[in-house]
Amino acid sequence: MDSKLHAFLTFLKQFAVGVALGFVITLSFRNLNIFPINSNLHVYAFLTLASAFVLYRGYTVRQFLKGKNPKLTGISASRTFLIASAAKIVSVVLAGYYIGETLTFLDLLQYEFVAHIFTKDLVTLLFSLLLYVSSLIALRWCQIPPPSEAT
Prior knowledge:
This protein has one domain (about 5-140). It is about 75% helix and about 0% strand. It is built from four helices and no strands. The chain is elongated, with a radius of gyration of 19 Å.
């Protein structure tokens, strides 16, 4: 199987798990008349800081691979790769969760408090996509360039 196709299918599976979790959990709470109306500022701050951290770690590996950061060890570089990989998975599942939660409330958008939940979920989705993009950039920076061919 093509590696790009495999990566895309893996992305879809992780995303589907997030959508299913968001939908089922929120539907369960909705059936109990419990609605997630609290603010998500703490989630926005966490996702922004996590994005910045992943980018910073990826940038240090990029500098190491260019020979500009000799203090970095291979172990630290591989840990950065793992952190970025985990951030990518978490961001996809989180994005799926909030889409699942949003889908749960589509039929109640005429109510103001549900519109607030809908808006909160869409903003959180954007912040989770920020983490996703940051992790992709960091993963790209962690790639070892192919050896140059001697001619």
